[in-house]
Amino acid sequence: MLGLGILKGFMETGRNFCGSYYDPERLTTVQYPEERLEPQANARTIPFLIYDGSDPIGGLRCTACTICEQECPAHCIEIVKDTAKKPDYLGKMQLHPKVFDIDTAVCMECGICAEVCPFDSIKMDQVFERAGSHRRLTLHKDDLSKSNEYYNKIHPAEAAAVDAARAEEQKKAQARKAAAAVPATP
Amino acid sequence: MRNEIAFYLVAAFTVAFAIAAMTLRDLVHCALCAAGAFAGLAMLYLQLDAEFVGFAQLLVYVGAIAVLILFAVLLTRGDEVRPGRAAPARSWWMGAGAAALVLAAIAAPILLSPSLEGGAPGAASAPVRRIGEELMTRYVLPLELVGVLLTGALLGAVVIAMREEPRTEDKAGGIPPRFTPTPGNPANPR
Amino acid sequence: MKTLDQIFVLTQHWLTGLAPAALQPLVSMLLIIAALMAVFGTCFALTTILERKTLGRMQNRYGPNRVGPFGLLQPAADGIKMLTKEDIVPEAADKALHFLAPLALTAPVWLAFAVLPFGRNMSAIELDAGILFFFAIGSASELAVFMAGWSSQNKYSLLGAMRAIAQMISYEVPLVLASVPVLMAAGSLSLPEIVRAQSGYALGWIPRWNVLTPWGAAGFGVFLVAAAAESNRCPFDLPEGESELIAGFLTEYSGFKYALFFLGEYLGLFAVTGLGVTLFLGGWHAPATWLEWLPSWGWFGAKFSALIFLFIWMRATLPRLRLDQLLNFAWKFLVPLALIDLVAAAAWLKSGGWQFAWALETRWLLCATLLAPAYVCLGRHWRGGTPKPRRYHYAQ
User: Fold this and answer.
1) What ipTM does this complex have?
2) Which of B59, B71, B128 is opposite residue C135, by nearest beta carbon?
3) Sequential pLDDT tens for chain B (190 residues)
4) Subunits with at least 3 CB pairs below 8 A relative to chain C?
5) Is there a contact between C318 and A31 if contact means CB atoms under 8 Å apart?
6) Distance from CA of C333 to the nearest CA of A (A)
7) Helices C155-186 & C335-350, crossing angle to 10 degrees?
8) With a threshold of 0.90, does the pTM exceed it?
9) Is C18 within the bounds of a domain?
10) CATH class belonging to B1-78
11) What residues of chain B, 105 to 134, have a C-beta less than 8 Å from chain C?
């Protein structure tokens, strides 16, 4: 009969109306600035650069290989190589970026740069409150550089794996160095 | 005195809208102005204390007939009207003749009626209850006749507007021919 | 108690008395107009926020709660936003009509409040044909909607306006037809008279409200549905369906003109709700003798708020109808039901003189046998039987 379904609907909304007052569990709204959800492990926004140690610029892992610049589908990364070389964590001499810019107006947050980076230097960030009172949308090296601890905090599992692999490589490199150093002495 | 001023204001309003309805180029504007003239007439009725007639005029003419005119204009309008001065149609004298006839038909009984001699009559009080009673007793036959006439008109409109019988192809479950692309007349030229 | 009941009337008389004698009629009128505009303007502001909060709760959300305590200042924020927005008029628009349309919609609606009795001795003017005045005023809004849609020179606007007019004309018929039995029962077109006819108690405790008779209950149902459609409320808000017509005839309106349309629509809802209270819910009468200590305007306000809440509830519950369903529902369900209700009301009123035992029960049975089968049959068949599976010619 016409009307029964309508009445059922009215019951449902009425139950919601009353229920939402005595049962706070019903209200699924998160009142954002005061309440926040835990970020999801694989949420990603713009990329950032990782540094080791305490120097945000000097400790950058980036070796200015420009793979990310070439792979970026949106061409939002611009890298200018520095002429001077510095030793990296394995003791190899590597180039450094003089300029590392990401145009966040163009960046589509796809994460390809992070996937192709052979040095685990560029990773995807989780910041989303990026509004500011300035109009600068291009982020420079010093804006992008964030510590390895931060990386460990936002992506714990992934970062632990990266750290373990790097420690392994470092150990191997040291062993090789030691092996190379031993025959030289006699 | 105050009543007279109000009367002249309302009359000017009505006549202005009526003239605008005749002279404006855009048919939709004309129709809206006609609605304004109807509303002015309703105000004139109300000024004569004819509440029922005034409100009925508003309800029927502004609420229904004006909308009907608008629909008719929108559904039948062909090309956009060309801008320029309003030019009387070639058969304007027929229109003028019809208007004169109607005017005469209204004016004659008014001029012949004896109430003109005795000066302005006092406000005729016609409460709705009395109108209803008169309609249901003395004027019941005209009322019924009008009802029958309107019902007939309604039925006629329904018959005209009724959906046509589905074509034989449609009944057989096929696609109506106008949707079938044929080699001679492809539905999709590309 | 008498003073509290008549406090607004007494205040108005006192304030009028302060004016010089020549100006007293004018002052009296202006006072009433100012009071009506203040009360229903506030009502509009409050309804917008309460509606959004209620809708939120019915969908397990909070609703607006940021501006002011509990979000109660949200209407003020909305008003400031509307007033400071740019008023955009399309290049091709018919400027004069585009400007006039929101005024033509909102101004007549205010007039409708003039005849509603808000309490004992509290109606602005006591017209002999009050309800006719109400419907006559309401019919002007169709032209306003047409003006808005046509003058915007926009397909969506015109389509929305055409839908709106088709809907308003269709639903005006059941709205008026549902009110006719009440006029028959009261024997008058004057709204205060109709309220007076509903005073007193049957069997000593049941109020003689029209809604508590079989024909009144059916009429009230028809009236509520038609009223929701007449004021473009959900589920009949398809003239401005955002999802298919990008707000219909409101597409090309922004800023304060948009706010005026909004105001007009809400005022129309208030007016027709007030009429529903007056016609079916006994106007300002209290539901029981021992509750008569509450002032009459308080009872009117309570019933009025309850009905507004019902409309909000309806909006939260029912999805929007399709246009053909909407028109079919008006012409194939509401109009026949209202006509049968008319017959039932005639039977009820004619049998009012029955004196034998079980007379009341027999009358109820008589009306119910007229109305219930009609309701069931019409409810089953207004869509023309079970809908067939749809065929799409172009997709084949």
Assistant:
1) 0.77
2) B59
3) 777 888 888 899 999 999 888 888 778 888 888 888 998 998 888 888 778 888 888 888 888 888 888 888 877 765 555 555 555 667 778 888 998 999 999 888 888 877 666 655 555 566 777 888 888 888 899 999 999 999 999 899 888 887 766 655 444 454 444 544 445 444 444 4
4) A, B
5) no
6) 11
7) 10
8) no
9) no
10) mainly alpha
11) 127-129
